[in-house]
Amino acid sequence: MVTAYRRHQARCKYANKKKYPEPRKHKDCTCPVHMDGFVTTPFGEKIVMRGSLETRNWGHGQILSLSMLIGTLATVRACCTLEAVHW
Q1: pLDDT tops 60 at residue 67
Q2: Residue 50 and residue 83: Cα distance in Å, rounded?
Q3: In the chain, what are the domain boundaries?
Q4: What is d(CA 59, CA 57) in angstroms, rounded to the nearest whole number?
């Protein structure tokens, strides 16, 4: 499962962890959008997906994270199909 979240910068009001203990819940600022998570292959291997989506637009970040996830799943499926044919 891959999750998009905002990585709050020091000047953001949500960067105060005492006032806002769960900063990943807050999405109504202009901090950069990042993603974090992993995809499990049929062989049990985990592919880690983590990093900046290089955008500050929440909707665009959601689209980017989903397109990366779909691309990774398609690559995993193609590799599994090739291995099955190879055997």
Answers
A1: yes
A2: 27
A3: 2-86
A4: 6
